[in-house]
TrEMBL record:
Residues annotated as domain Cyclin N-terminal: 69-178
GO MF, one annotated term: protein kinase binding
Alphabetized Pfam families for the sequence: Cyclin_N (PF00134)
InterPro entries: Cyclin-like_sf, Cyclin_N, Cyclin_PHO80-like
Listed PANTHER family: PHO85 CYCLIN CLG1 (PTHR15615:SF27), PTHR15615
Protein name: Cyclin N-terminal domain-containing protein
Source species, domain of life: Eukaryota
GO CC entries: cyclin-dependent protein kinase holoenzyme complex; nucleus
Residues spanning the signal sequence: none
Length: 211
């Protein structure tokens, strides 16, 4: 039996805190340089109106340093990516720990890509989708229909064949380096303490298992 797809849910229903979702979006956007998604892409993938999608791609802050410029370039994509990620986490029941492990995979991906690597407007969406899919399969025994579920979650943006291709490409780039220790998780959390604002992800995960 395939997992069910829930309706689009409000922010408070996400199993992952906003601080973690924001960190995830920033991490994915830093993997490689990509042009910002068009309002049409945002509207189709995030269930936003054309007006809201256009607003999400509009930037009004000037920058001076290179780092500030990069952050500024990423800012228009960030709200849309967070919304997309929130929907994935809700509809696929992604836990805080699963999202953290997916970001560890994303960090590993950064290390294998060259500084010249470039992506398409929707590459950040594909990266986080692939990472979460792989994590779900790595952590859970029952993965029947998971690729099809992820395709449905995107509301037709990505077909089942697209999802399968993303997964194979992601695994190939990582060379199937998927094992993550508790020390890896602790190290990631400690290195992002400011962004995570004191979240105790391992404690939350253990409590969920005990329940």
């Amino acid at each position: 039996m395939e997992p069910s797809v829930t309706a689009d849910l409000p922010e408070k229903c996400s199993p992952c805190p906003e601080a973690l979702l924001s960190l995830a979006a920033g991490s994915v956007l830093s993997v490689l340089q990509c042009p910002p998604p068009s309002p049409t892409l945002l509207a189709s993938s995030l269930l936003l109106s054309q007006e809201a999608a256009a607003a999400a791609t509009t930037s009004s802050v000037s920058t001076t340093t290179t780092q500030e410029h990069l952050e500024h370039e990423h800012q228009p994509q960030r709200p849309g990516l967070i919304h997309f990620l929130r929907n994935i986490c809700v509809k696929a029941a992604v836990t805080e720990l699963a999202l953290v492990i997916s970001l560890i995979y994303v960090d590993r991906l950064k290390k294998v890509l060259t500084s010249m690597a470039r992506g398409d407007p929707d590459t950040p969406f594909k990266i986080i989708l692939s990472a979460l899919l792989v994590v779900k399969k790595f952590m859970e025994e029952d993965c029947v229909g998971l690729n099809r579920l992820f395709s449905k979650i995107t509301n037709g943006l990505y077909t089942l064949r697209d999802i399968n291709t993303m997964e194979r490409s992601f695994l190939g780039l990582l060379k199937f380096s998927l094992f993550v220790t508790e020390e890896d998780v602790l190290g990631f959390i400690q290195s992002h303490q400011d962004e995570l604002k004191g979240l105790d992800i391992l404690k939350t995960s253990r409590s969920a298992v005990a329940a």
